[in-house]
Specification:
Layout lengths: L11 H14 L6 H28 L5 H30 L3 H24 L7 H48 L1
Membrane topology: Multi-pass membrane protein
Main location: membrane
Keywords: Membrane, Transmembrane, Transmembrane helix
Length: 177
């Protein structure tokens, strides 16, 4: 099957691929709900950090030595991971980079979710009411980021793969001429 060629030597198929590639290149795939959730998480993070430190100070004498070690380790890990995770989330979502967005999502589901659940529902660590309230909000934000991050990651990956395939088609059609 041959394509019809216009007077400039371009086939109609080549023009369609070129229009699709240019149109696809200007599409924005960042996710607004994910970005809003990340924004609120950045605002809440210092309050969570202060609340966790104050509550740890209040209940430190009542904990056994093993739980003192565990809760300090979890708090330090959560703080470091949260900073990296939020940075990757912002970078991956706003600049539409799939690896950063995937790193954000993996850190969220593999590390943050279990550690927050452990802090919230572990009876030997005696979560105090203030700590529980802040943890519930952080957990709600984390869950919303997991859901919206999954869809943002999927949309961004599909968009990048389409751009790659259209670029390959356009490159091969230019090489044929």
């Amino acid at each position: 099957m041959t394509d019809k060629v216009n007077r400039h030597g371009f086939s109609f198929r080549q023009k369609q691929v070129q229009r699709d590639f240019v149109g696809l290149g200007h599409e924005i795939t960042s996710c607004l709900p994910l970005q809003m959730s990340l924004y609120f998480n950045v605002i809440l993070f210092p309050f969570w950090l202060v609340t966790t430190a104050v509550m740890l100070y209040l209940k430190y004498v009542y904990l056994s030595s093993i739980y003192r070690f565990i809760i300090i380790l979890i708090s330090v890990c959560l703080t470091v991971i949260e900073c990296v995770r939020l940075y990757l989330g912002y970078l991956g979502n706003l600049s539409e980079k799939v690896p950063e967005l995937a790193g954000f999502w993996v850190l969220s589901i593999v590390l943050q979710l279990p550690l927050h659940l452990l802090l919230l529902f572990s009876a030997p660590m005696w979560p105090l009411p203030g700590e529980s309230a802040v943890e519930f909000v952080m957990l709600a934000l984390l869950m919303s980021q997991l859901v919206t991050g999954f869809f943002a990651l999927r949309k961004s990956a599909l968009h990048q793969s389409r751009r790659y395939h259209l670029a390959q088609i356009q490159k091969s059609s230019q090489n044929e001429m």
